[in-house]
What we know:
Layout: E1 10-13, H1 15-19, H2 29-41, E2 46-51, H3 64-70, E3 78-82, H4 86-94, E4 99-105, H5 108-115, H6 119-135, E5 139-145, E6 149-150, E7 154-155, H7 158-171, E8 175-180, H8 187-197, E9 206-210, H9 217-226, E10 231-234, H10 254-263, H11 272-286, H12 293-303
Parallel strand pairs: 1-10, 2-3, 3-4, 4-5, 5-8, 8-9, 9-10
Antiparallel strand pairs: 6-7
Helix pairs in contact: 2-3, 2-11, 6-7, 8-9
GO biological process, one term: L-leucine catabolic process
Organism: Bacillus smithii 7_3_47FAA
GO molecular function: hydroxymethylglutaryl-CoA lyase activity; metal ion binding
Amino acid sequence: MFLKWPKKVHIKEVGPRDGLQNEDKILSSDVKAEWINRLSEAGLVSIEVSSFVNPKWIPQLADAEEVFSKIHRKEGVKYAALVPNLRGLERALKADVGEVCLFMSASETHNQKNINKSISETFPVLEEVVAEAKSAGKTVRGYVSTVIACPYEGEIPVSQVKRVVDRLLEMGVDEISLGDTIGVGVPSQVEALLSELLKSYKADQFAMHFHDTRGTALANVLISLQMGITTFDSSLGGLGGCPYAEGATGNVATEDLLYMLTGMGIETGIDRNRLLQAAHFIEEKLEKPLSSKQMELARRTRKE
Length: 304
């Protein structure tokens, strides 16, 4: 029996924020802007540019305003940023972000470690941000971390994830990105999570955000596709990680995800050659090899 795959998938690039925030090397705003321009020229229509959290917490992204001022905005591309609170939102609106991204965890302990608040304490803060962002005419995206498991609490019950999702959608969040932050999930767990959430909500209200710590990210994408999800977060070169989970590696690599989807006949609107050129660019600037399969293959081919 042949499975029916979607005709088109929307890939959201999170490398400039989720990827670079974990790098020891701090890149200049000019380099970041050039990389983002290359990503938009490759056909990506949703790019998470930076974060408006307090610069002392993430020095790698302290230049958010500068980066937004230097990118060449391409028509049809949504330039997003992470926003923690009203102060961050004020900075983001001045920079003219295209989409406001919120973040919290389905794990109580991870939420405390990550943003120094309980889940219940986080809701009112985010509710204010959603209301103000909507008033400013912005779309709002909510990241929910550790939807499969947490480095402190172990496996997270689906009911716990649903509690957070329910509240965020009640606030008016347009899309929820469900994150397997430490990359431990397997397809059966993803299926169980989505089976429960899709009883109450439509598939187009969700995106999936998989890390590839144990090599299961693309398998998890496949089960998500089968269940009707058509939006996925990824990071060029597999950049990223989780600072609170020892050994957790980066996001599923955009170029690896693209290879699979293209081979399946699924449209993405992304030019593979230009995407790989953008990957080579950031690889040189970071002065380290990117870990994706496509980039490893390119390095082997050059040696041969």
